[in-house]
Amino acid sequence: MTTLTFTPMTEDDFAVFWPTFQAIVAAQETYAIEPSISIEAARQLWLKAPKASVVAKDASGQLLGAYYLKANAAGPGDHVCNCGYMVAPAARGKGVARAMCEHSQQQAHQLGFLAMQYNAVVATNEVAVALWQKLGFSIVGTVPNAFRHAQLGFVDTHVMYKVLPGH
């Protein structure tokens, strides 16, 4: 794995990221996002609404992945954050998701979050489930048939949770 730099996502970064985002949601294998989402709605979801949106780039400046970080709930639940990660197809299997997850936990801690929760990790996304578990997340619940996978039909999702370091 090459050294990654993490910077806040810009509008230009989002334009570069859009094909990755579009391909991932269109595949209907990992994200419960409408496959025909418009670029404007995707920009709002990934770049505008979250507390932080971050890109991971290699030494040459190529965008390898991106993540968002936001409160999982409002008011009395706003101390737990939620993140979403997407890795460019050419960068998969090279440690980008791990690096983004580790970075997002540091960011979340700096922003005052006490824990991180993933609301709907698709159970058939075994690589992600295993990685999140290696990074200290526990499956705290499973929702039967909560995701309509493009190839497999109805599959389960996991709720995964981790208290952030220092809390």
Automatic annotation (TrEMBL):
Pfam families hit by this protein: Acetyltransf_1 (PF00583)
Residue intervals of the N-acetyltransferase domain: 4-165
CDD domains with a match to the protein in the record: NAT_SF
Listed SUPFAM superfamilies: Acyl-CoA N-acyltransferases (Nat) (SSF55729)
Name of the featured protein: GNAT family N-acetyltransferase
Organism, scientific name: Halomonas casei
